[in-house]
Amino acid sequence: WDETHFGKMGSYYINRTFFFDVHPPLGKMLIGLAGYLSGYDGTFPFQKPGDRYEQHNYMGMRGVRCYRLFCAFLGSCLVPFAYLTVLELSKSLPAALLTAFILIFDTGCITLSQYILLDPILMFFLMGAVLSMVKCNSCADRPFSASWWFWLSLTGVNLAGAMGVKFVGLFVVLLVGLNTVYDLWDLLGNLSLSLVMFGKHLLARVLCLILLPLALYVAMFAVHFTVLNKSGPGDGFFSSAFQSQLIGNNLHNVSIPE
């Protein structure tokens, strides 16, 4: 059922047809982009679960071969993400290998990664955020180094990605937030660290973990509204003034008073 739901939204992006959904747009935009790049023309109706795709090229969105991977590729990335996270936290190769082994043979992960769903995309950004946070913590003895900035910025990018796919991404935002508060509290208690240096640490985290994710999150919606410029099933959820900007709408180019 969900593949029918999100596959249809991928088609809407390819056809630039406006729609409304309860989830943020990033996951559906990436599904649409994967379909577009792999040759899918957005014509399959996705009317009901179980319909045969016939001659339609759906492999780019679902993905099992060559560069036509996407959902399957993102799902497969969870294994090395888990391996690297546990290895960094435990410094134990057997523990990291056991984690990767368990995830490789996890039936739910394998199944979810086979279809046109938001779940593998969401999990990719969630686990990416945790891995980036852990790697950034490992660079605590080298603050403001290139690797420290890289992992801190990548954590912010992954937070935006998680929030941009589903609002459940707020949980990883909470996790990174608690880790950051603990880190800053520890720095504040370090009497050898000047207040100026503490201020730099605070500013770096505000920049990379608050402003950067917010800017990326807003940019997703900017792309969303720019791409979807044709009238569609989501028109009625918005004001007349907004509908007048959609090509094909009955109110298109009509002067709407404030």
TrEMBL record:
It is found in: Endomembrane system. It comes from the Eukaryota. Keywords: Glycosyltransferase, Membrane, Transferase, Transmembrane, Transmembrane helix. One of its GO terms (molecular function) is mannosyltransferase activity. One of its GO terms (biological process) is protein O-linked glycosylation. The chain crosses the membrane at residues 67-86, 93-115, 149-182, 202-223. The keyword Glycosyltransferase applies. Residues 1-229 form the ArnT-like N-terminal domain. Pathway: Protein modification; protein glycosylation. InterPro entries: ArnT-like_N, PMT-like. GO terms for cellular component: endomembrane system; membrane. It is a multi-pass membrane protein. Belongs to the glycosyltransferase 39 family. This is Protein O-mannosyl-transferase 2. The gene is Pomt2.
